[in-house]
Design brief:
With 271 residues, the protein is α/β, with parallel strands linked by helices. The chain is built from nine helices and seven strands, in the order ααβαβαββαβααααββ. The protein has a seven-stranded mixed sheet, sandwiched between helices. Helix 4 links the parallel strand 2 and strand 3. The two termini are 21 Å apart. The structure holds S-adenosylmethionine.
């Protein structure tokens, strides 16, 4: 389950259809935005709630030896880098993203990780893997920005093996940045040891107004506003469940994550 994690202190240390009725109308010319975001995206690793989200993914993917995993919209490879700091079984990850800037950073950052292969792909156009290719698929904070979440879930469902798990994190309707910032400071308060607590607080206070965190906050505010204007698909629990149930995905669990600003969903493709 998501939200079971006692956040560590900063760890170590193809569509034919249009948008669904009533759904957001996405501005599809987003490459510019994501490439710009890609230049500063690594700063998000300083956010304790974000690290917690990575941990929630790690725990809920239930990694086992030999699993083949798809990271749909991998960004700068933060999840793969996070995994490399844990003891994990032998797995293979195919990580895709459409932003050359995000991918370049991911490849550079994860160049020593033999378990991941990064490649360029546009989730709005479908992926070139055969049916039933993956035991696990994760899609973390990506679905909201895509043209049609139903089409993308259809594609991910096609790629998922029977009995495989799909794990999605996506902003809730009403997603706000401030609770994430508040949660970060609250969790600093929970850090064990005055020395460590002071160090993390100091780091945050230095990074907040600077290139470390300021651009991340700015971009999160842009995302928040695009969600309010319904340019992004911030999906409610019932909408998410509907999308998954349309594919007869089973064992659907939906919980809160990311300072309660995301819905964290796990579903299984029937055997
Ligand atoms: C907020 S970031 C999340 C990155 C990563 N999953 C994480 O949790 O850190 C969203 C990512 O989705 C990617 N993305 C957006 N639209 C995409 C598309 N049509 N195809 C592939 N990737 C896309 C962006 O380039 C960006 O890297």
């Amino acid at each position: 389950m998501a939200n079971t994690y006692i956040y560590p202190v900063v760890p170590n240390a193809k569509s034919q259809r249009g948008p669904m009725k009533g759904q957001a109308t996405t501005n599809h010319n987003q490459g510019f935005f994501w490439n710009l975001y890609g230049k500063c995206y690594d700063g998000i690793n300083h956010s304790i709630p974000y690290r917690g989200l990575l941990y929630d993914l790690y725990i809920n993917l239930d990694l086992r030896p030999g699993l083949k995993i798809l990271d749909a919209g991998c960004g700068t490879g933060n999840f793969e880098k996070f995994l490399s700091t844990r003891s994990i079984p032998s797995i293979e990850i195919e990580a895709v993203d459409f932003s050359p800037v995000m991918l370049a950073r991911a490849k550079q950052k994860c160049r020593d990780l033999s378990f991941v292969n990064f490649s360029a792909a546009d989730l709005n156009k479908g992926l070139e893997y055969p049916d039933n290719s993956f035991d696990r698929i994760l899609c973390c904070n990506v679905l909201y920005s895509l043209e049609d979440p139903l089409n993308v879930i259809t594609e991910l469902f096609r790629l998922l093996k029977h009995d495989g798990k799909l794990v999605i994190a996506n902003p809730k309707p009403g997603f706000k940045v401030i609770p994430i910032v508040r949660d970060h400071f609250r969790r600093i308060g929970n850090i064990w040891g005055l020395g460590r607590k002071s160090m993390v607080l100091l780091k945050t206070l230095v990074l907040l107004p600077t290139m470390g965190l300021a651009p991340i906050l700015l971009n999160l505010f842009v995302i928040e506003k695009k969600g309010e204007k319904k340019e992004y698909h911030f999906l409610s629990e019932s909408k998410l469940r509907n999308l998954l149930e349309l594919h007869k995905l089973t064992n659907i669990e939906v919980t809160d994550a990311y300072a309660d600003q995301d819905l964290f969903t796990i579903a299984t493709k029937a055997a």
